[in-house]
Amino acid sequence: MLVQGWASIAFWMMFGLLLEGLIGYKIPAYLEDAQRRELFRLAHTHGTLLGLLLVIGALCAKNFALEIVKAPRVALRLGVVLMPLGFFLSGIRHTETDPGLAIWLVPVAALLIIWAAIAFVLALLKFNDEKGQ
User: Fold this and answer.
1) Which residues touch 68 (CB under 8 Å, ≥6 apart)?
2) Closest CA to 1 of 75, 67, 104
3) How far apart are CA 41 and CA 53, in angstroms?
4) Angstrom distance (rounded) from CA 83 to CA 104
5) Which of 38, 69, 72, 109 has the least CB density, counted as fewest CB within 10 Å?
6) 47 neighbors 106 (Cβ within 8 angstroms)
7) How far is 9 from 95, CA to CA, in rounded Å?
8) What Rg, from alpha-carbon coordinates, does the chain have?
9) Helix axes 34-63, 105-131, angle to 10 degrees
10) From its phi and psi, is residue 66 left (phi > 0), alpha (psi between -120 and 50) or beta?
């Protein structure tokens, strides 16, 4: 999780830098499409922040020796990939008023991440109970 988190941060920060370049060089395909700009910004922001979530989750699991079963860990890692990817792909090709079909990856990813977050909460509660806190 730690490596994927840092890789996600690096990738989506580079993507954000690319977006800034598109603005700086006034690329019409990007500037004239408000929906594409918004969806790409959402991809950049969610990708970066969810990468931080992975790093924090990995550090918590290691430092507190949390027992988190494999399924929620996989769900978290998958959700972190699917959410920004859903925003990005839906911004590539969309109708005038609606994002592309890939936007349906976003709520699926959100559910995966929420499930993983609940698993972390339960593991932390169990850890606290075992330590008598």
Assistant:
1) 61, 119, 120, 123
2) 75
3) 18
4) 9
5) 69
6) no
7) 30
8) 17
9) 20
10) beta
- Taking only the tens place, the pLDDT of each residue in 38-77 is 999 999 999 999 999 999 999 999 998 888 899 999 999 9
Lookup result for tokens 């790409």: 40
- pTM of the predicted structure, to 2 decimals: 0.93
First to last CA, the chain: 27
Residue 21 corresponds to which amino acid? G
Q: How many residues does the chain have?
A: 133
What confidence tens digit (pLDDT) does each residue in 67-88 have? 889 999 999 999 999 999 999 9
**Are the CB atoms for 75 and 115 separated by under 8 Å?**
yes
**DSSP state letter for 27:** -
